[in-house]
Design a protein that fits this description.
This is ABC transporter. InterPro entries: AAA+_ATPase, ABC_transporter-like_ATP-bd, ABC_transporter_ATP-binding, P-loop_NTPase. By secondary structure, this protein is an alpha/beta fold. The longest helix has 19 residues. The relative contact order is 0.12. Bound molecules: adenosine-5'-triphosphate (ATP). The site of adenosine-5'-triphosphate (ATP) has 12 residues, from strand 1, strand 2 and helix 2.
Length: about 325
């Protein structure tokens, strides 16, 4: 569904030193620098997949999504989405994809979302019966009934985001590019948006490529992740395997009947945190069952769970090691 080969986007940016002298000099002699926002990436996404496109700030994620949706022309390389070359922006292509940016809005500010929906129906030439059916379905899934008649400017951020999603999906696109779709939303609204994206993917077999700095989005939605840093792909594969490869340790969370000194806890592994009622002890995955047995035998345990390390830690470790490898190669 998405095919990307040796894709690159280089920006030519004007650079100058700070200060008035430098400003005057730059009028006569401008110096430019090339920023390799995307630096020759390859990947393939099959129909119906949900893939996280992750990376630190400035890694090249938004630039890539813009090229995939045809908003930016690549400097070089090839892209095909649903069989189309995105930069041609053919009507058939536009009907099959959508780009939702958490930081930008397409809803008309002074009018109710229902008006934007009607406008999109005309733009995408959606047959009236299908439009009615899709609006009804999205209204139910996203609980929009009380929102679509109010002027957009009166909606809260989360309410607006739900309507944004509906507006972006009215033409039932097969490919969803989602750029930080839950940014700024409270936890319950985040959960609503995640649940909705998953339901849409399952209901219509749609392909989803999602960027997010919120690892809960990624854990909930993306069995596969592509990780990009400084314009290059540093990982592409199964999220759970990535977790195991980068952080082959587990966390044993024990609730305690009474406080246990840290020195005593450290006999079982590395103590991540400990207070009067609960301790978190980290051990290598291969040693979990032995450690659990010893903990249950020795400590006043009222409850015990085994967890993976937080995904945030896995990702920051991956970014760090990716950078170190990149620097060593230079
Ligand atoms: N129009 C532009 N002109 C020049 N440089 C740009 C332009 N847009 C992006 N860049 C640069 O390209 C690089 C990649 O930017 P991009 O927005 O794709 O990153 P990102 O991974 O989406 O980051 P974030 O997580 O912060 O949104 C950055 O170094 C950015 O400064």
């Amino acid at each position: 569904m998405i095919d990307v080969r040796r894709l690159a986007k280089h920006y030519r940016v004007h650079r100058r030193q700070p200060g008035l002298g430098a400003a005057l000099r730059s009028l006569l002699h401008r110096s430019y620098e090339t920023v390799k926002a995307v630096d020759g990436i390859d990947f393939h996404v099959a129909p119906g997949e949900r893939v996280g496109f992750l990376g630190p700030n400035g890694a090249g994620k938004t630039t890539t999504l813009k090229m995939l949706s045809g908003l930016l022309h690549p400097t070089s390389g090839e892209v095909r989405v649903a069989g189309h070359v995105p930069r041609r922006r053919e009507a058939e292509f536009l009907k099959r994809v959508t780009l939702v940016m958490g930081q930008k809005q397409q809803l008309l500010w002074d009018l109710p979302p229902a008006e934007t929906f009607a406008l999109n129906r005309a733009i995408y030439d959606v047959p009236p019966a299908q439009f009615e059916e899709t609006v009804a379905e999205l209204t139910r899934l996203l609980e929009l009934q009380d929102l679509v008649g109010k002027p957009t400017r009166q909606l809260s951020l989360g309410e607006r985001m739900k309507c944004e999603l509906a507006a972006a999906l009215l033409h039932r696109p097969q490919v969803l590019f989602l750029d930080e779709p839950t940014i700024g939303l409270d936890v319950s609204m985040q959960a609503t948006v995640r649940g909705f994206v998953k339901a849409y993917n399952e209901r219509f077999g749609a392909t989803v490529l999602l960027t997010s700095h919120d690892m809960d989005d990624v854990a909930a939605l993306c069995p596969r992740v592509i990780v990009i840093d400084k314009g290059r792909i540093i990982h592409d594969g199964d999220l759970r395997e990535l977790q195991r490869a980068v952080r082959p340790d587990k966390r044993i969370v024990v609730r305690l009947e009474h406080p246990v000194p840290a020195a005593e806890l450290s006999r079982f592994g590395a103590v991540v945190s400990a207070d009067a009622a609960q301790a978190v002890i980290q051990v290598h995955a291969a040693e979990v069952s032995a450690a659990v047995g010893r903990i249950l035998a020795a400590l006043p345990v009222t409850d015990l769970t085994v967890e993976d390390p937080p995904l945030e830690e896995v990702m920051s470790e991956l970014f760090r090691s990716g950078r170190a490898a990149g620097e060593a190669a230079r």
